[in-house]
Amino acid sequence: MKNDTITAPMGFSAGAAAAGIKVAKKLDVGVLVAENVCSAAAVFTRNRFCGAPVIVGREHVRSGKLQAIVVNSGCSNVATGNRGIDDARTMCRRVAERIGAKETDVLPASTGVIGRFLPMDKVLKGIDEAIARLSPSAKAGRDFATAILTTDTRMKQACERFRIGKTRYTVAGCCKGSGMIAPNMATMLAYLTTDVGISAAQLRPLLGVTAEHTFNRISVDECPSTSDTVAVMASGLAGKLETTSAIKTFAEVLRCVCEDLSYQIIADGEGATKVLEVKVQRAKTPADAHAAARAIAASPLVKTAVHGGDPNWGRIVQALGATDVAYKPEKVTVKLDRTVIFTKGAPAPRLDERKLAAIMKRKHVPITIDLGAGRASDRVLTCDLSREYITINADYHT
């Protein structure tokens, strides 16, 4: 069976265990280990109440080197004070001892309920079991991708292979995310592996730009999480990227993988039945383009209209009108898919309500807003807002 999981690039193994942090004996501890120390980079949540693993993770990845990642789900280790930080370090120490690495070369992460201490006896037992099951197999990659999930309904993976000359490289990733998806890192844990040879100094800006235009362009509920982490490890086992052109090709593939993972997060948004793609064109500035797209994507009125299949363009222009974005209303055009529904400050003539309703019932609903104010553009992905979202989050703590 072809391996398209996090272990697809050369030099990576994964393992997972059901440690009892979650109920029903679900996988809840995952370990990802590289054969050797890798060039690495990571970006994290900007939430001021960031989790203890984020605090420790920032310290560890600062060197630009990692050899392992350890994750638990079911408890986020957030707002847990010094004990939480000690627990995150203990997780790293346990992995390091078992694989013969430095504690500072291990990146920790936790996801789940906020404000609870980790059950460290279970976590450490789970780490030992996960390491005992380390394997470069596709099954091990899938188990790792499953162990990091919380309210997700499915695992999320992506893999791309590419050639430069006669050398074949691989970029793979997995992530979790379904709710608390918002700006400044959507709520997620996302892990990327590759066998390209690239320095940490080159990797850092590539990951930062990629995350900004993929994971920071999605929204379920505009609730920035406390635990977000996106990390990449490059083993270099396939060969070094020698030219600027080669690095550019790698950057394009990395972005493709992250775009795939980002879309999967939105498609699996809590209670989601549809993906809404909001494109803004001809904005005066990139900041204006992003602000306009996010305002529409974040609107509960727009999101509920999408859920109900209602082509109510009034909600779209209302959300746009509430921003400080530079434009003249009479120059704004709004399209639902390819159909103009609003133009020159008024509803488009001869609107076919049945056709528009049919578009709104699709699994992917595209909206395009032309501001007629410049040349900048942007895109934000979101999902509809359903009754199920309320049910999930009302019951989540238990």
Please tell me about this protein's structure.
The structure is a single chain. With 398 residues, this protein is an alpha+beta fold. It folds into two domains: 12-266, L-amino peptidase D-ALA esterase/amidase (4-Layer Sandwich); 275-395, ArgJ beta chain, C-terminal domain (Ubiquitin-like (UB roll)). The chain contains eleven helices and 15 strands. Strands 1, 2, 3, 4, 5, 6, 7 and 9 form an eight-stranded mixed beta sheet that branches. Strands 8-15-10-14-11-12-13 form a seven-stranded mixed beta sheet, with helices on both faces. Helix 5 runs parallel beside helix 6. The longest helix has 24 residues, at 244-267.
In short:
By secondary structure, the chain is of the alpha+beta class.
Topology:
Blueprint: E1 12-17, E2 29-44, H1 52-61, E3 65-75, H2 81-99, E4 106-113, H3 120-132, H4 138-147, E5 156-164, E6 167-176, E7 189-197, H5 200-213, E8 218-219, E9 229-240, H6 244-267, E10 275-283, H7 286-298, H8 300-308, H9 313-321, E11 333-336, E12 339-343, E13 346-347, H10 353-360, E14 364-370, E15 376-383, H11 387-395
Parallel strand pairs: 3-4, 7-9, 8-15, 10-14
Antiparallel strand pairs: 1-2, 2-3, 2-9, 5-6, 6-7, 10-15, 11-12, 11-14, 12-13
Strand content: 25-35%
CATH architecture field of the largest domain: 4-Layer Sandwich
* CATH topology category name of the largest domain: L-amino peptidase D-ALA esterase/amidase
Structural class given helices, strands, pairing? alpha+beta
Can you tell me the CATH class of the largest domain?
Alpha Beta
- Binned, the helix content reads 25-40%
